[in-house]
Design brief:
The protein is an alpha/beta fold. It is built from twelve helices and six strands. It has two domains: 47 residues, no CATH class; 264 residues, Lambda Exonuclease, Chain A (Alpha-Beta Complex), CATH 3.90.320. Strands 1, 2, 3, 4, 5 and 6 form a six-stranded mixed beta sheet that branches. The protein starts with 8 loop residues before the first helix and ends with a helix. Iron/sulfur cluster binds next to helix 4. Iron/sulfur cluster (SF4) binds next to helix 4. InterPro entries: PDDEXK-like_dom_sf (IPR011604), PDDEXK_AddAB-type (IPR038726).
Length: 332
């Protein structure tokens, strides 16, 4: 990790010790060619605390906003939902688990298990056992629907691993990456990080109904933040991001630039600032419903808190298996 931004407490202690050691010879900032203004005889010499403040060297470090891309995405989708998930305690009661989330987790976990095998064991034949071991049963209408989903997921996985090199070990599988900016302490779990030449590639598995495009890869805040963090964790360039859509076997890619990653980071910081401002407003006595406005829309039908949220009540209720059923009807 290559943190940037204000120094942490440890860094601060080191700086203070370093200054204390060096002041009898020369102020340490001379090393950085910063001109020193010597106090005139008429003016009193500033205290060391004043000096620190003037130079901005030892100002209290700004409190960073700890977040994942998912947390930021929740605020961007609906500030009210963000409040339900991250602020209100106890959190309002959630609806029942979604079958499509169970299906997605099962597929992700099976791929993680597949990469945990040794190279020669990484065959399509290993997949039924791995998928059974990681299968999540929640949310399905009945056993028949669940069995159908299992068969479909197994088919996706067999096709997918058939196109992989079993001898190639990724740089990371379900790897947590983290980085700091001036405002954010970012972290997130990446499905897979591959090596391509001297560079890293961020890979995100998708199991939803719709095929994805390069615009989806370009616009994904999560992928961009993962690339930003991975570059700092591994100290290797990481600009390429890929969405691997297992149901269609397609890959949507985007090659970021330093500027496009910086743009995503800036937007993430803006979102974080908005969320922090709202949290502070509530702590100072503001109405939570005003500080975290609801943004109702089609998303409400899929929101875990729809039953606890009057603003989302107008959206049609979906059965927990609705997305899986739609996917099975659309399957060839
Ligand atoms: S139901 Fe809709 S408006 Fe209410 S929290 Fe969920 S997404 Fe927001």
């Amino acid at each position: 990790m290559n943190p940037i931004g204000p120094p942490g407490a440890h860094h601060l202690r080191i700086c203070r010790a370093y200054v204390a050691r060096r002041t009898s010879v020369a102020p340490w900032w001379q090393d950085r060619h910063v001109p020193i203004e010597r106090p005139s005889r008429a003016s009193a010499a500033p205290s060391s605390a004043e000096q620190d403040g003037q130079l901005g060297l030892f100002a209290a470090p700004r409190r960073l906003f700890s977040c994942t891309p998912s947390r930021l995405g929740t605020y961007e989708d609906c500030p009210r939902r963000y409040r339900f998930v991250y602020v209100d305690r106890p959190s309002p009661r959630k609806g029942p688990p979604w079958a499509h989330n169970s299906l997605g987790s099962s597929v992700h976990n099976a791929l993680k298990s597949w990469y945990a095998l040794s190279g020669p064991e990484r065959t399509p034949a290993a997949l039924p056992r791995l998928l059974r071991a990681t299968w999540v049963s929640e949310g399905y209408r009945d056993e028949a629907q669940e069995q159908q989903a299992f068969n479909r997921a197994l088919g996706w996985l067999e096709t997918y691993v058939d196109g992989l090199d079993p001898a190639a070990d990724p740089v990371g599988v379900e790897r947590v990456v983290a980085a700091r900016t001036e405002l954010l302490a970012l972290s997130g779990r990446v499905d897979r990080i591959d090596q391509a030449g001297d560079e890293l590639v961020i890979i995100d598995y998708k199991t939803g109904r719709s095929e994805l495009t390069s615009d989806d890869a370009r616009g994904s805040r999560a992928l961009a933040l993962y690339a930003y963090a991975a570059e700092r964790v591994f100290r290797r360039r990481c600009r390429r991001v890929e969405l691997h859509h297992l149901p269609t076997g397609t890959v949507a890619t985007h090659e970021h630039t330093e500027e496009s990653l910086a743009r995503h980071v800036r937007r993430a910081e803006q979102t974080a600032q908005d969320a922090m401002d709202a949290e502070q407003a509530v702590a100072a006595g503001a109405d939570p419903d005003e500080a975290f406005p609801a943004t109702p829309g089609p998303i409400c039908s899929w929101c875990d808190f729809r039953r606890s949220c009057p603003a989302g009540a107008a959206a049609p209720e979906r059965e927990p298996w609705a997305a899986v059923e739609r996917q099975s009807l659309a399957a060839p």
